[in-house]
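Example (one chain per record):
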Amino acid sequence: MPAKTKIEWADYISNPIKARRVAGPYALNGGHTVIKQGHACIKISEGCANCWASSFNVRLGTGLPYTVANMQAGVTEIYLDEKEMQRIRKFKPRLPKGESTFKNGRSRPVVFPCDMTDLFGAWVSEEWLDRIFQAMWMCQNVDWLVLTKRTDRMLDYLAKKNNAGKIALNNIYLGCSVENQKRANERRAAMDALAWMGWKTWVSYEPALEVVNWEGWQFLNGLICGGESGVNARPMPPEAARKARDYCDQHSIPFFFKQWGEWIPLDHLAWVSDGTTFKHKPVEVAGEMMVKVGKGLAGHVLDGMTHNGMAG
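Predicted structure:
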């Protein structure tokens, strides 16, 4: 079955797209010797710089970071995991023990497919996309929140289905990652077109690296905002979260504030006094003083409130 996850906005993850690291010149019978299995992807924009999935794959997967060179034939082989596809088709979610709802008060669980790669990467064939979308559609007891940075390919693929008479699937939400204004501008048109075709859409504004003007995104069914975590995490300008929250409020878009990440505004730490010392020196970020205290201590409270609005 899809695996349970600690991701704040999802109940489960599922990874039918897998990768094998193949080693030459140690070939057997003219083929390659499979030495490690895991995942693969290619970093394409600023939000990918400190990719958690890439670091995880280096440690516990194929051992290779997410680069173009490592995606070449003879280095990595991408395949569709038939066992995971079968688990998706047979998936029957259960409420958490002692709970009457799934995460964030939802009556239906959320599954995040392909959290370790990009479902719309060039390495995923249309045949595989067809099979994955069919499997998600057949699993009607959950909501699937798809996420990509490759919105043009997502639109191209689904526009073909639309022209062939296929309609938008009601348990699948199409999402894109946005980290700054440049990427918001690049990805908005494709998302707007998908919404016009009847698809439910959402945005993962994580890591939020700069303030974004969200005008023109009123078609969204949800927006999840968060700062970056990890050793080399970059701070999220506090105004980035506030602008996204306010825009969602104005347009009745569910808003989910996932986390501050490693950094938090000093004025959000109630225990800070003039005598407080920090392991990391506070710095000014877009006009506000922020300090690196770690994801756990930074938390997910924005201006005194939690925000758990979810698409659907």
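Caption: The chain has two domains: 3-13+81-298, 17-80.
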